[in-house]
Amino acid sequence: MSDIDIDFYESEDPIWNPALLAIPMPGIRKMVNLAATMEDVIHLSIGQPDLLAPRHVVDATVDALHAGQTGYTMDAGLPELLEALADYYGERYQRTLLPENILVTTGATEAIYLALTSTSAPGREFIVPDPAFMLYAPLIRMNGGSVKSIATRAEHNHQLDPQEVIDAMDQNTCAVVLNSPSNPTGTVYPRETIEAIVEEAAYRGIYVISDEVYDHLVYDGKPFPSVLSCCSDLDHVMVVSSFSKTFSMAGMRVGWLIASQGAIRKLRRYHMFTTTVANTPCQWAGVAALKGERTFVNDMLAEYSRRRDRLVELVDQTPYLTGYKPEGAFYMFPSLPEGINGNNVALRLLKETGVCTIPGQTFGDSCGNALRISYSTSIDRIEAAFERMIPWMEKQDFA
Ligand SMILES: Cc1ncc(COP(=O)(O)O)c(C=O)c1O
């Protein structure tokens, strides 16, 4: 790809912990940095909602600041937010959660960091779908654990075969990492898939670490099968989510982790040694988000659903791209013909048409011939991007 990034991980300087070698050069950064040097770029690369956070949420942040809420909260999180989250989940999934089952973190990112780095160790294996959100594998590998990938394919809507996951479990398996709706595929796993994996994992004493940050972005009126609604107890699950996507609060950095009280006690201590506590005024914003009216979420869902439908049509009209209908999040992960290098295609697309997508390889080894397309941008922009991409693809010879 381009050489515009300075790759410090590959530097010879002995100061760096060799574990940093597990962190790849992020494909997203490469593309976005290159795009920043160009004019007239259309981004289909965006990983956060393009809508403003709801007004009452912003007001709650400002009010908290004016009220002097600028100190640390309790280590587990602001008590009012822990209560609000317990009530919200209790109502959503009809199961009793106590504030002691929840740890408030600096975005879902910290929750994922805590979950993976507190369990990964040499000799331990983690089953991870491929493609997957790019944080999981490096965090596992940095701490000595290994990744067993389960490849999914565009032709099957990137659905995970639960039996394949179960067959991959052995005496070294420490955890299965799930992310539904998925970044980068937008795939939502059906209840049967989640139930089969959760049940077998619990039986074998294996954890299921479930990243549910897109849990409200599920289209076509379908229910969302959370791991929390598929497990009888919390003994072998850690569920992660945040306000980033649902309320367009990505920069406010508030997320959480839900687990058994014993696991939360352990992770609370680790959290204190990691980030101390999450941002205090933004935790008040979170209380307002959970307790306030939800028209924002419904409007966002309706808008993204329209964009998704249009994107499906456009990908269908694009030579060499095999798409499918993603059921959640705001991504599609279409594939190019087998053997075609997605890195080269993404780079050439950017340089020759000004359309910025993310190469599939960013999300796993099995996806070298894919592109991640985000529809977190207006329908006009999506259409303008394909007005450039379709004629460009027509000129290629990828057969
Ligand atoms: C699957 C997934 N998990 C976690 C995150 C990070 O979320 P947060 O902003 O809450 O740290 C993202 C952000 O793009 C994501 O796509």
Compact description:
This protein is α/β, with parallel strands linked by helices and 399 residues long. Helices cover 38% and strands 13% of the residues.
Protein architecture, described:
By secondary structure, this protein is an alpha/beta fold. The protein folds into 2 domains: 144 residues, Aspartate Aminotransferase, domain 1; 237 residues, Type I PLP-dependent aspartate aminotransferase-like (Major domain) (Aspartate Aminotransferase, domain 2, 3-Layer(aba) Sandwich). The chain has 12 helices and 12 strands. The chain has a 7-stranded mixed sheet with strand order 2-8-7-6-5-3-4, sandwiched between helices. Helix 7 links the parallel strand 5 and strand 6. Helix 2 crosses helix 9, helix 4 runs parallel beside helix 5 and helix 6 packs parallel to helix 7. The two termini are 22 Å apart. The N terminus is likely disordered. The site of pyridoxal-5'-phosphate (PLP) has 13 residues, from helix 4.
What CATH architecture of the largest domain would you give?
A: 3-Layer(aba) Sandwich
Kindly report the oligomeric state of this protein.
Answer: single chain
Q: Radius of gyration in whole Å, from Cα?
A: 21 Å
| Helix content class | 25-40%
Mean pLDDT: 94
CATH topology category name of the largest domain = Aspartate Aminotransferase, domain 2
Number of domains: 2
Structural classification: alpha/beta
Give the total of beta strands.
Answer: 12
In terms of topology, how is this protein built?
Blueprint lengths: L26 H10 L5 E2 L11 H12 L12 H15 L8 E4 L1 H11 L7 E6 L5 H7 L3 E6 L10 H7 L4 E7 L11 H14 L2 E5 L25 E6 L12 E4 L2 H12 L7 H12 L3 H22 L14 E2 L9 H12 L1 E2 L1 E2 L11 E4 L4 H16 L5
Helix pairs in contact: 2-9, 3-9, 4-5, 6-7, 10-12
The protein binds pyridoxal-5'-phosphate.
The site of pyridoxal-5'-phosphate has 13 residues, from helix 4.
